[in-house]
What does this fold into?
Amino acid sequence: MSKPPVWYELLQRDAGSLARRGRLHTPHGTIETPVFMPVGTQATVKTMAPWELAELGAGMILANTYHLHLRPGESLVARAGGLHKFMSWQGGLLTDSGGFQVFSLADLRKISDDGVQFRSHLDGSPQLFTPERVMEIENALGADIIMAFDECPPYPAEPAYLKNSLRRTLAWAQRCKTAHRYSEERALFGIVQGGTDLALRREAAAALVDMDFPGYAVGGLSVGEPKPLMYETLAYTTPLLPADKPRYLMGVGAPDDLFEGVERGVDMFDCVLPTRIARNGTVLTSRGKVVIRNATFSEDWRPLDEQCDCKVCHNFSRAYIRHLLKAEEILGIRLTTYHNVYFLLTLMKNIRSSLEQGNFSTYKQEFYREYGYNGGNTGEDV
It folds into this structure.
């Protein structure tokens, strides 16, 4: 029997937690897990060339179904030969389903059991996303992993709303599975919703596992709930999912969240954080976040992070990068983005190494101590 287009290989488990080391096999290469996926919303990770991402070791990136549907359109991408050829990316690709846009574009949409009616944020044109339409769009885009259409409920939400939202999401998941055209190149993942209601999370996981998806995402977290509640919900949810399939925590990428997610059994992460804060002049360092735009760095000749060996830290000073940012030179945000993406990809590489060596807990404690994380603080602006 031939292997499916995407499959997970469990290599080892951490003795002291739910953390695990594995590999995700895809038509565009094998991805070492746990993995962080940079976000390329418009078929590009902002300011970075594909060869730079490959150079940094990004095995897989994420593209946005909603935005690519509106511009340039999935038909054009399909005529170009699919997203990989369109954006000249040789590694793994994942497309979300537009479910988060259902959450974030509250003023522009109307949800029903059939799907979501909304107006384009670009030109106001009317749009309709149904599970069947989303599958059509995602298959045309041609990523290795495509996500089922779901509703991401807000936090907080009334119990009745959460229950109805989950009912709809599960019905949509089955419709996506039915509509998905089986391909040797694509795998459809289900998304576990339910807010912070543990009973609903259990119901969602059971229903989706029964549908037998090749992978499962945990959605609807990091949407405003306190971090301890997010971690509690995640710790409850991941053991409900099959051990022989990948687990993906959507939209999470702060360094502490990566550690806590890995500790709770997550294999895949994505987040816009490294690129977004880079454009605002903030960088991630081993001692916490640094707001490099601040005047205190105007004559600081140190690299962004003295413990970092990326090309940016080898070649440029804080003072120079601050100058570029203040002068609104494009190179400034290219350098901060390159460094931030490198920082998180290297962090995940080190986490994988710690799992292989059996010292994940020790590495986590050492990182937190240096980073300045104490359970609420996420580092000093040094």
Remarks:
- Residues 330-357 form the longest helix (28 residues).
- DSSP finds 15 helices and 16 strands in the chain.
- Residues 61 and 145 are 10 Å apart (CA to CA).
- The chain has a mean pLDDT of 95.
